[in-house]
Automatic annotation (TrEMBL):
It comes from the Bacteria. This is Chromosome partition protein Smc. Required for chromosome condensation and partitioning. Transmembrane segments: none annotated. Contains large globular domains required for ATP hydrolysis at each terminus and a third globular domain forming a flexible hinge near the middle of the molecule. These domains are separated by coiled-coil structures. Homodimer. ATP binds at P32, N33, G34, C35, G36, K37, S38, N39. Belongs to the SMC family. The chain holds residues 1 to 193 of 1140 of the full protein. It is found in: Cytoplasm.
């Protein structure tokens, strides 16, 4: 997958709609302390479905919405649009929007989808909110200090097989409920004899 563009509106310090074009090759973001470099990386993670307050450096879900300054009122919503090209060359547009009091909603190519669908789309493409391709401050030290099981999770993300664990859990839960239904059916049939 090739991430081509990021559009932010009301997300953290990006109060005005801002567009970041990501050209082929290595992209570096430079600027003075506190100008919003890490917020950009967090926007990519967030649109991919990240909710962990630690990853987002926030206390609650709504903390990603522009909180206002001495001269600007807070915003009611935050929106991030990620434009990409999938491995088949097809355009992909993923939108995540959060409104105060109303939670998050996702759209992929104009259709409403669940958070899980977005996370699986990125996990299958060997990218996603926990992708090793997104290198934030302190990440290198974290990789070096990681326990073997954590390092395995990083490798699984990189290999694009992280989504398989989610699918396996779903399939196991379906299997368990089908087994219960079968047992119930057998009981009912035994009652008919
Ligand atoms: P450094 O180089 O110091 O790591 P940085 O360029 O990575 O800095 P960020 O950490 O991305 O900067 O941005 C921090 C800025 O974002 C702070 O000024 C903070 O006040 C602002 N900020 C974060 N969340 C919000 C929010 N919800 N509303 C308004 N501003 C926010």
């Amino acid at each position: 997958m090739l991430i081509k563009q990021l559009r932010l509106s009301g997300f953290k310090s990006f109060v005005e709609p801002s567009t970041l074009r990501i050209e082929p090759g290595l992209t570096g973001v430079v600027g003075p302390n506190g100008c919003g470099k890490s917020n950009l990386l967090e926007a990519i993670r967030w649109v991919m479905g990240e909710n962990s307050p630690k990853s987002m450096r926030s206390g609650g879900m709504e903390d990603v919405i522009f909180a206002g300054t001495a001269t600007r009122p807070p915003r009611d919503f935050a929106e991030v649009v990620l434009s990409a090209q999938d491995d088949n060359g097809e355009d992909l547009e993923v939108v995540r929007r959060i409104e105060r009091g109303a939670g998050s909603a996702y759209r992929v190519n104009g259709s409403d989808v669940r958070a899980k669908d977005v996370a699986l789309t990125f996990a299958d493409a060997a990218t996603g909110a926990h992708s090793p391709a997104l290198v934030s401050q302190g990440k290198i030290a974290q990789v070096i200090a990681a326990k073997p099981v954590e390092r395995r999770m990083m490798l699984e993300e990189a290999a694009g097989i992280a989504g398989l664990h989610v699918r396996r859990r779903d399939a196991e839960s379906k299997l368990r409920s089908t087994e219960k239904n079968l047992e119930r059916l057998e009981d009912l049939m035994a009652g008919l004899d």
